[in-house]
Design brief:
By secondary structure, this protein is of the alpha/beta class. 44% of the residues lie in helices and 11% in strands. It has a five-stranded mixed sheet with strand order 2-4-7-6-5, sandwiched between helices. The protein has a five-stranded parallel sheet with strand order 11-12-13-14-15. The protein binds one DNA strand through helix 2 and helix 4.
DNA sequence: GCCGTTTTCGGCCCGACTGTTTTCAGTCG
């Protein structure tokens, strides 16, 4: 038997993933089977998120197909990459495509088709030229804001990720720190701990007997991390997932000070300790500050929950010991925004009701899409009448949970609602949302929403701004006018808890709550398991400073139904 | 190329509307 050739040095997961992503890019530029392209992309993503070294696993002859998105084909490609340092198919492709296409292999987040389209129209042939045109604003002018954002995202080095995607990554790194790096204690800090919606840096505070050794061990995460910097008590790395990782050392006696100082936000710390001198004194003095309470106490403050540390009014409230008692997952009594197979959901009404009951909910509102939203299987008037009768029958049989009759009703371009009034009147409440004509001007878009709220059957405004995090900014609205109108009309808002929406933002949710309007924290679930997105919505609600009294679906059913009446 | 409560093939959403189009790509959930 001939021994396989052995590559000189081990490859990091980042390097391996880069090759798979490169394959995807070139296949895409060549117009290959889109599902094959997606398979390579997905596998690259999986590997980028992995703590274990692919290189080590290949050499140990481990079964790689146990990872999602890696089958026989890609597993053998990985073997080839690790053992020979090359991927034959990729080299072959690189040799056959023009240089401007080959170059795209290094930019896995750029869509080759869009890039080549731009090249053709602009008469350019390279990424540097593309960057230059982007800076001049020519891309935006010629192809619109969306293309511009796509190119920008694809060209920047570090890419932010959704908090809900960063959480499992953080958990994996925390395990690695505790199990493989001899950390005595390791906890997330920074913006992630404050539950900011997107993450561009993961940060940890660690307690360890030997920081240099811990840093050395951590550098082996994911088969090897690029080190961006290090000193005696901190270190920074580049993670394969595109974000950075920061580690701060703290002894047990100073754990609290370090947590306060690293959790931030900058604004919060600045307001708390303008010169930064007091925190530094606590950090370097002899008095132990093992927990955050002791630190805030030293400042004459009550402990501020991390979610509130944004430099709003939290310090004033902490001084008076009047911080809000923030809403928790356990306070939620039901779901008010959920889809079923009637439109674009995955489960039937009965199955969703079962999933809601498993979560001990008192009620579940069924809000399938309305008739105009064809792509999402919008429900016809006739079918919604049928659904109303079906839910009545289900409620007679079910115990322990009440299914509420509702709909996610499209707000049409002119501000009218997507069903006639007699049908809307037969529902317990409505969630009304914009799903079309995002590009109306601010004034027109605002009028559209105000007019919709004038309909007496309008109950809750769904995902108020239409933003998609890291993708789309959403439509323009005069939000203050919308709030004032909602208040006058007796309408509510939702915090849509889909991890890529989180809309209302914490800032907007704060404004709504200040106007005395209750907010529903809704998941927009399209599957039973998506009811658990509630945790993301609760993060937003807490960042907005909401107590349970301010949250619509913390109400028991009878009070909820009364609140719905306008 | 991956995957399997339709498991070794065949699906992997997708369908109507918008735009400042110029004959189709992009966009909404």
């Amino acid at each position: 038997m001939v021994a396989p050739p052995v590559a000189s040095s081990p490859l990091t997961n980042a390097e391996i993933a880069q090759r798979l992503a490169g394959m995807a890019q070139l296949l895409s530029a060549q117009g290959e089977n889109p599902y094959k392209i997606r398979a390579y992309r997905r596998a690259a993503e999986t590997i980028r998120g992995l703590g274990e070294s692919i290189d080590e696993q290949v050499r140990a002859d481990a079964d790689l197909t146990r990872y999602a998105g890696i089958g026989k084909g890609i597993a053998s490609a990985l073997r080839e990459i690790v053992l020979s340092g090359k991927l034959g198919q990729l080299e072959l492709l690189m040799a056959t495509v023009p240089p401007e296409v080959a170059e795209l292999g290094d930019y896995p987040r750029l869509d080759p088709k869009r890039v080549l389209q731009a090249y053709k129209k602009l008469g350019i042939h390279s990424v540097p030229e593309l960057k230059a045109r982007l800076e001049k604003g020519e891309i935006g002018k010629m192809f619109g804001a969306r293309m511009e954002q796509h190119f920008r995202n694809g060209l920047i080095e570090t890419q932010a990720m959704l908090l809900d995607d960063a959480d499992p990554l953080a958990a994996s790194i925390q395990r690695f720190l505790l199990e493989r790096c001899a950390a005595i204690r390791a906890e997330t800090t920074g913006s992630t701990r404050r539950r900011e919606e997107t993450v561009s840096e993961l940060a940890f505070v660690v307690e360890t007997l030997g920081f240099p050794k811990l840093v050395e061990s951590l550098a082996r995460y994911g088969g090897g991390l690029k080190r961006l910097g290090a000193d005696e008590t901190s270190a920074r790395f580049q993670l394969p997932a595109g974000i950075t990782l920061r580690i701060e050392a703290a002894p047990a006696s100073k754990w609290g000070v370090t947590m306060v100082a690293t959790t931030g936000s900058e604004r919060h710390l600045e307001m708390m300790d303008p010169a930064g001198a007091r925190l530094a004194r606590l950090a370097h003095g002899k008095t132990p500050y093992p927990d955050e309470s002791s630190v805030y106490h030293a400042f004459g403050l009550a402990l501020v929950p991390p979610e509130l540390r944004e430099g709003n009014d939290e310090l004033e409230l902490a001084r008076r010991d009047a911080l809000p008692k923030l809403v928790t997952l356990e306070d939620i009594r039901g779901e008010l925004h959920a889809h079923t197979t009637s439109s674009d959901g995955a489960l039937s009404i009965a199955e969703m009701a079962e999933a809601a009951r498993e979560r001990s909910y008192e009620y579940l509102g069924i809000t399938d899409h309305s008739q105009s939203l064809k792509i999402a299987g919008g429900v016809s008037e006739e079918d919604l009448w049928k659904q109303i009768r079906l839910i009545d029958r289900l409620n007679e049989k079910l115990s322990g949970i009440r299914i509420l009759k509702s709909s996610e009703v499209d707000i049409l371009a002119d501000g009218s609602l997507d069903y006639p009034d007699d049908l809307l009147a037969a529902l317990d409440y409505t969630v009304c949302s914009i799903h079309s004509r995002f590009h109306l001007g601010k004034a027109e878009q605002t009028e559209r929403v105000l007019r919709a709220m004038d309909n007496p059957h309008f109950t809750i405004l769904g995902h108020a701004t239409g933003r998609l995090l890291l993708k789309r900014t959403g439509y323009e609205l005069d939000f203050e006018r919308v709030i004032a109108h909602a208040r006058a009309a007796g309408c509510f808002f939702e915090i849509n808890a889909s991890p890529d929406r989180l809309d209302l933002s914490p800032q907007n949710a704060r404004l709504v709550a200040q106007a005395g309007i209750r907010i529903a924290v809704c998941t927009d679930a399209h599957h039973g398991r998506e009811l658990d997105y509630l945790r993301c919505g609760i993060d937003v609600a807490r960042r907005a400073g909401l107590e349970k009294q301010a949250v619509l679906n913390c109400l028991p059913l009878p009070r909820l139904l009364r609140a719905f009446r306008r």
